[in-house]
Amino acid sequence: xxxxxKTAVITGASRGIGAATARHxxxxxxxxxxxxxxxxxxxxxxxDITAAGGSALALTCDVANWNDVRLAFExxxxxxxxxxxxxxxxxxxxxxxxxxxxxxxxxxxxIDVNVKGVYHGLRAVLPGMEKRGAGTIINISSGAxxxxxxxxxxxxxxxxxxxxxxxxxxLEYRDKGLRIMxxxxxxxxxxxxxxxxxxxxxxxxxxxxxxxxxxxWVARGxxxxxxxxxxxxxxTDFSLKTEEGRARVGLPRTxx
Length: 256
What we know:
The chain has 256 residues and is an alpha/beta fold. It is built from eight helices and seven strands; from the N terminus they run βαβαβαβαβαβααβα. Strands 3-2-1-4-5-6-7 form a seven-stranded parallel β-sheet, with helices on both faces.
C-alpha cells in the first residue's frame, strides 16, 4: 500500500516517534491527523507540514478518554474521509519506581494511556475498516511486552497488554481484510529515554545516549509496515532491534 492520499491517524504526535511519523508520512503524500493532549505542539507540527505542501490536521485529545477519542476520530473522518491507517503510538513510562514505592495514581495513568488508549483507538476505527474491508493498524510495542525490568512494572504490564490487543484484533479482523500488527523499535532517542536515565533503575538507564536510534528510523519502519512487507508480521511485533528487521526497512544494520 502506498501512503499517497491515504489518511493516517497518529496518536502521541506532539513529539518523538509520533511527530517524526507524521512528518514522514506527510512527505510521502498521506493526509496526517496528529492527536495529542498538547494542542500547541501538534498545531505547530501540522502548520509546518502544511507549509511544506503536505496535508495535516491537529486534534487535541486524551487517548485515555473514550469520548475524547470518539469525537476526535469523527472530526478526522469529517475532514479527510475514511481512516486508512492508525498508528497507536501514545505512551507513558513515568513515574518509574519499584512496586513498593510506586504511586497508585501514576501507575494507573500509565495503564490508562498505554492500554486503554490503544483499545480506544482500535474501537474507534475497527467498525469502519471492517465495513470497507481494508485498513492498517500498527501498535507501538516494546521488548518490555515479553520481558520485565526493575521499576517498569507499569510499562511492562501495559506493553504485554498491548501485544495481546494486537494478537486479539488480528484474530478477529484479519479475515475481514484488516492488517493489524505491532512495531517494537528498541530504545529511541526521545524524551522517554531522558526520563529513564534520570530514574537510575535497571540497565536501560545506564545506556549511553549514542546507542538510541533516531525517531525517524521508527517512522520509516512504520511506513514499511504499511506496505506489503507488513503482511509477514500480522498479529505479532516487527522488531527494529534486529539486523534483519532494519535491513528490511533499508536502515543501517548497526545502531548509530
